[in-house]
Structures are given as C-alpha cells and as structure tokens.
Protein: 8-amino-7-oxononanoate synthase
Amino acid sequence: MSIADTTPPDLSGALSARMRGVGTSQIGLVADRGRDDPEVVKLWIGEGDLPTPPFIVEAAHQAMLAGHTRYATSLGLPRLREALSAYHARHWGVEVPPERFAVTAGGMNAIMQAAQALLEPGDEIVIPSPAWPNLAEAVRITGGVPVTVPYRVQGDGRFALPLADIEAALTPRTRAVVVNSPSNPTGWTMPLDEMKALRDLARARGLWIVSDEVYAHFTYGNAIAPSFLQICTEDDRLIVTNTFSKNWAMTGWRAGWLVCPRGLGPTFAKLGQYNTTSIPTFIQHAAVTALEEGDGFIRQMVSRCAESREILVAGLSRLPGVTVSVPEGAFYLMARVTGPGTPRAETSLDLAFRLLHEAKVGVAPGTAFGPEGEGFIRLCFAISPGLAREAVARLSAVLGR
Structure:
C-alpha cells in the first residue's frame, strides 16, 4: 500500500479536553469556499480593501536595510512603547507610561495573553454576544468558560447592553468581563457613563475588565470612542487590547499591543517571551511610523467607511424582510434577513453560502458570532463606496426577488 493510500489515524480524541472544545470559525468556512474567486465581493472578514500606506511599508524597508532584523525585547522596543504612550495622550488625553505597554503579535495575541494571565481552569469570563468568535475561543483554549450575555435589540434596531444583564450573569466563578467597544459585529458603542458604572461594579466585585478597543477611531457622527483608560487608575484591574491592523491597514503585519496595570510589565514580558519571543524588529519600527505619521490615514479610512456605511444601510433597508441595525461604530453592519427571498428553514450559514453562490457576495453568517446571531448576516464596509454600491446591487437581486 502506498503512503497516498494510507488513512491517518484519528488522534483528535487524544488531544486535551479544552482543545477538543474549541470551535471552527464559520467565517472561515464561508471564506474558504470563495476566497480564490476574483468575482466575489468579499465582505466576510474584518479587513479593508486599502493596502498598507507606502510610508509605513518604506519604514519597514529602511529598518531592514539598517539591520533591524534581530531579536527584540519581548515587551517591544522602548521607542515603540514611548510612541504608544504619546499616541494615547494625543487621542484620549491620558498619561500612560511606556512600561505599562506590551507589544503583541496582533490583537489576537493580546487577547490570548490577557486570558493566559487571568484564568484558572473553570474561571468564567462574561462576554456580550453576538461577539467576535475569537474572544470565546481564547477563553476555552486557556481553560476558562465563556458566559455570554445577549445584547438587547431596541425598537430602532440598535443594540443595547444594560448593566443589570451583566450583573445577572456574574457568579462566584466570574473572573472578568470583556467589553469590545465599538463592537464587532454589532457596532454598539458603550457610552462613558455606562463604562463608569461597569468600572464601579468591577471594583466592588474584584473583577477584571478586558477592554478590546480596536475600533475606537471608527465612530460615525461622534468623537472618538471613549477608553476605559480615561476613567480607570493605573491600579485598576484593567487590560486594554488593541492592534495596528485596522487603523493603518496592517492586518498581515501581525502587530498589536496591550495596556496592563502598574507593576505587571514583567508578567507580560514573560508571556511575550513564551508566546512569540517578540514580533519582528523591523515591523516594530514601521509601527512607530504608523503611530507618529498615520493620523491622516486614519481619518481617510474613517471617512471612507462612513460613506460606504451609508450606502449599505440605505440600500439594504429598502429590501423587503431585511432589517438593518445601524452601527454606531466599527466597520460592520448586522442585517436581519427574514424573507421573502429567504426560505423559512434557512440558517444564517445557509444564507451566507447561498449569497456567495447566487450573488457572488461573501458575508459572515450571524451564527459565527454566537447563537444570538442566528437570522443575521454581517457585512464589513471597510471598502470603497463603489464596491459598496456593487454589493447592494448584487444582494438586492437575490434578497429582493
């Protein structure tokens, strides 16, 4: 028998229980089916259609030519952490010293390090849902238990998260509450007074807050989204996670950061060392340039997203059986689809596959973000207005018939 004829043994049962419990991304299931089709309008993944700005690419190139291709400290280059401190002071008016920053391999690694630092087996983390699926899976991989709290859908279709609902989900095993504001996938943005109320609840219960603030610049009709760093002290149980991916079109660069309380820098130095050693040094030099010279590009990105958001909201709202939740922030739109172009037994995953086949539009199924997402699809509008119009035309031809 040749090697090609040999069926490998099924060793999945020999893996750890926590690994066996990790789910498969439904976004990936849909994307893998149409990823290589050039005719598909790809709105499934949280990635814009603009390339990384040339001034950031050139900074990486020059850093490589200068020999910045060796190991760096696991917390990140001192110059990068100083630039991160200045960036937060400029945009949120907060003074966060460089020693509270840790550079990570993207926002996902920042989330993973937070989970690794906080969780004992069986500890619970409260996560509002629908939620970016990686949050819950990072908790499971590290032995924790994700506890979801559904957003409430208001009469106008907007999402809300009453503090009472979070409080009702707390148990003696609760270790932390995750807040993603502005939210992927809902676009919900937590008001400052609600952030203060959650901070007070966390202080009273001895809980951690893990604040994923990746989309803070992407707000529409309002100022930059508030940060928990504005209302918490350096000794509060707060970890803020972020990434270079969204603001500066650097998704493939895998560069992010977290902000930890005073005195925990050595802990995250160890986690960085044993997770990745460090991210590439030349990428860190490029990240400094993004922080120091990239505010104009952020404004361009947000303006472009705002226009494409309006096109998708207006176009999809006209379709029968489609209810659009107008996002306050981030660059995703959640739409509930109930017909007439939708069979009653069709799941959101079925619908995503059908739209890929019939409309040549790639969307994320709502159930990719938890069972609370059933009946919804999510569309990323970090795209050109022209592409947004094309997506509306194609979706209308299928959902409006």
About this structure: The chain has two domains: 13-51+297-399, 65-294. The CA atoms of residues 74 and 274 lie 9 Å apart. The longest helix spans residues 295-317.
